[in-house]
Amino acid sequence: MLVARSIRQRQGAAPTGAFTLIELILVMAILVIVIGLVTPKLKDFFAGRSLDSEVRQFLSLTHYARERAVSEGVPMLLWVNTKLGTYGLRQETGYTDGDRKQEEFKIDKSLSLNIAKGTIGSVAGNASLAGRKGAMPGIHFSPDGLVLKATSVPAIQILQNAKQFVWLVPTADLLGYEVESQNANNANLRR
User: Fold this and answer.
1) Dihedral of the alpha carbons of 49, 109, 181, 121, in degrees to the nearest 10
2) CA angle 111-184-141, nearest 5°?
3) Nearest 5°: phi and psi at 160?
4) Predicted model pTM
5) Whole-angstrom Cα distance, residue 84 to residue 105?
6) 25 vs 19, 21, 28, 30, CA distance in Å?
7) Sequence spans of domains, the chain
């Protein structure tokens, strides 16, 4: 083999197994074009993942709130603070001295929270919360695990941008909240 290679080099034949500069430049140009086309799609993909992740976390917290209400026999509040972009879980005030298991979460920077006006039982205004000192809008679970219609919000929106959002609404049996189908008519009703 060594002899054949040296003979080819003496005869002026090009060495095998190497790339020319033109081939390398063409491969690099193709890679740049592919990366340029794929990058915007990956950005949208990862943005959608943060919305999906936040929705899953919020729904998990509703399940946990219901379980705590039933197991501890104390009303629970899954509160939402739209101004600070936070939500959390605590026992309703006035039932115990303090809640050592309370939770608080901050949503991703690219997301925002909105609450539909009124309560599940009425679409007028949230009169049941207005008179209560320090009342926060959110989802109220009774000790039997049901969502309290008179004080719970009818829907919570987690918004990525004008096109990507999810509405969380009470289930028909009032045992929790679920994702509502993203229907344009439903979105307009909640504003």
Assistant:
1) 150
2) 60
3) -90, -55
4) 0.64
5) 10
6) 10, 6, 5, 9
7) 19-190
| Token pair listed for 87 | 């939500």
Q: Could you give the CA distance from residue 49 to residue 110 in angstroms, rounded to a whole number?
A: 11
* pLDDT digits 0-9 by tens, 178-188: 988 664 434 44
Q: Where are the beta strands (DSSP E) in 46-155?
A: 76-81, 86-91, 103-106, 112-115, 138-141
> What distance in Å separates the CA atoms of residue 38 and residue 80, rounded to the nearest whole number?
37
Task: Enumerate residues 6+ apart whose C-beta is below 8 A from 58.
Answer: 87, 156, 158, 168
Task: Compute CA distances 153 → 7, 115, 123, 173, whole Å.
Answer: 86, 7, 10, 15
Per-residue confidence band for 141, with pLDDT thresholds at 50, 70 and 90: very high
CA–CA distance, 43 with 145 (Å, rounded to integer)? 40
- CATH 3.30.160.20 for domain 19-190, yes or no, is no
Band of pLDDT at residue 59, cut at 50, 70 and 90: very high
Considering just the CA atoms, what is the radius of gyration of the chain in Å? Answer: 29
Containing H/E element for 6? helix 2-11
Contacts of 190 (CB under 8 A, 6+ apart): 116, 155, 157, 167
Structure tokens at 123: 């679409």
Given a contact cutoff of 8 angstroms between Cβ atoms, the answer to whether 180 and 186 are in contact is yes
